Amino acid sequence: MKIFLLSVVLAPSGSASTVLSSASDVSSFSFYQRGSVSEFLTFFSRTVVDRTAQGQRQSVQENNYTAHVYNRGGAEQLAAIIITDQEYPARPAFSLLTKILDEFTAKVPQSSFSNPSAISFPDIQTFITKYQDPRQADTIMRVQQELDETKIVLHKTIESVLQRGEKLDNLVERSNALSAQSKMFYKTAKKQNSCCVVM
Fold first, then answer.
1. Is 131 in a helix, a strand, or coil?
2. CATH classification of 3-195, choosing from 3.10.180.10, 3.30.450.50, 3.40.50.20, 1.10.443.10?
C-alpha cells in the first residue's frame, strides 16, 4: 500500500483550482521517471478536484492509481486529495483528508490563500510519511463519525468524472501543464497496462 501524493487545494466553485500545499512520494519509481510521474499526479489531482462538487467526497480510479478527494467547500473553499495505489483502503484515506483539512485551516490563515507560494505547511510532509501505513489513519477514524454521515461516490474510472464526450487521453494531449516527456510517460504506461489480458 502506497500514498503517492497528498494535496490541499483551493477549489472555488466554477473556477480552476489552485494547489496550496502538496507533498509527494515517488521514490518507488526510477529516478528518470519521477519528474514525469510527479507532473502526471499533479495534473490528475487537479482534474479530479475541479470535477468534484463542494461538499462531496469521491474516489476515482485511473490505471493503478486511486484518487480520493474531499471538497469541503464552505467559506474557505478548500479541498484535499490523496492519490494512492489501488490497495490503499478508502476509509483511512478519507479520514486523513478530513484531518489534513482541519490542521491546514487551524495553522494557515485564509488571507494567505491568494499567495500559495508564501504558504508554509510542513505538516503535509509528515502526514504523507506517517500515513503510508493506513492503520495509522484508522485511529483517527475511531474519533470521527463524519464519514459515516457523508455520502461517498465511488467512480470506477475517471471517464465518469469527465464531462460528456471528454476523454482523459484528450485532456492529457491538450494540457499545457504536462511536458512532452510526461505525456509520453502517460501513453506508455497506458499501453503497458492494457496490452495483456488474462483469461
1. coil
2. 3.30.450.50
Mean pLDDT by 10 residues, the chain (199 residues): 86 84 85 86 85 87 87 87 86 86 88 82 86 68 51 56 63 73 76 60
Whether the CA torsion 94, 96, 97, 102 is positive or negative: it is: positive
pLDDT of residue 145: 47
For residue 61, the cross-strand partners are 66
Give the three cell numbers for residue 25: 512520494
Q: Identify the residue whose cell numbers are 484528450.
A: 170
- Provide CB contacts within 8 A for 128, sequence distance 6+: 3, 5, 6, 23, 24, 25
For 126: left if phi > 0, alpha if psi spans -120 to 50, otherwise beta; the answer is: alpha
CA distances from 88 to 2, 30, 83, 156, 184 (A): 7, 21, 9, 15, 27
92 within 8 A of 141, measured Cβ to Cβ: yes
Q: Name every residue whose Cβ is closer than 8 Å to that of residue 49 and which is 6 or more positions away in sequence.
A: 9, 11, 17, 69, 71, 79, 81
